[in-house]
Amino acid sequence: MAGRPADALGENAERWQNQNGSGAEPLSARRVPQQAATRTASRSRSGRVAGSAARVRAARGAAIRARRGERQPARARGVALLLALPVMGAALDEAVSSQLGWAFLLMAVAAAAVAAASCSRSALWWLVPAPPLVVAAVTVTAELLLGPAAFQGGKGLTTGAVRWGVDAFPAMAAAEAAVLAVLLVRYARARLGGRAGSA
């Protein structure tokens, strides 16, 4: 039983040569060049597809690197504004009066709003909690350097820290509210822009 397929093939080959002459080219030899040509064509097509996919990946990578390069200066500007404007407001308030006031609050709000408007999505993780921390740090530094001498000792420093926390709270809350409001406006504009583009 195992020998029957081979016998059938041999009989078919004999029949082929009898019908086409003894010098006829075997059928399998005719199929090989066609199969090779088909394989070569499919390889060249797959090579073209792979090449175009590689070009697309390279273009996407270049675009991502360009966007990252553009984000670096914007991120640096956001950090500089977030720090510089409250310091300027604190210096102005300390020059005019003995404690932090409206100039500090307004500068802290402006700094938070500008930083939120200019930051990238990837920077939100540090931007959202930053304004209260910046306000607290600037408040403590300004009061230690420029505040009354009564807050320079141990017990005076504890009393001063409580007072500074209470005095700085409105600026902290306003700066955080400004960040959240700007981010909410950015989100709403992005959603409306996406809907208008799809309509």
TrEMBL record:
<keyword id="KW-1133">Transmembrane helix</keyword>
<dbReference type="InterPro" id="IPR046672">
    <property type="entry name" value="DUF6542"/>
</dbReference>
<feature type="transmembrane region" description="Helical">
    <location>
        <begin position="168"/>
        <end position="188"/>
    </location>
</feature>
<feature type="domain" description="DUF6542">
    <location>
        <begin position="79"/>
        <end position="191"/>
    </location>
</feature>
<keyword id="KW-0472">Membrane</keyword>
<protein>
    <recommendedName>
        <fullName>DUF6542 domain-containing protein</fullName>
    </recommendedName>
</protein>
<feature type="compositionally biased region" description="Low complexity">
    <location>
        <begin position="36"/>
        <end position="54"/>
    </location>
</feature>
<feature type="transmembrane region" description="Helical">
    <location>
        <begin position="98"/>
        <end position="117"/>
    </location>
</feature>
<feature type="transmembrane region" description="Helical">
    <location>
        <begin position="124"/>
        <end position="148"/>
    </location>
</feature>
<dbReference type="Pfam" id="PF20177">
    <property type="entry name" value="DUF6542"/>
</dbReference>
<keyword id="KW-0812">Transmembrane</keyword>
<feature type="region of interest" description="Disordered">
    <location>
        <begin position="1"/>
        <end position="54"/>
    </location>
</feature>
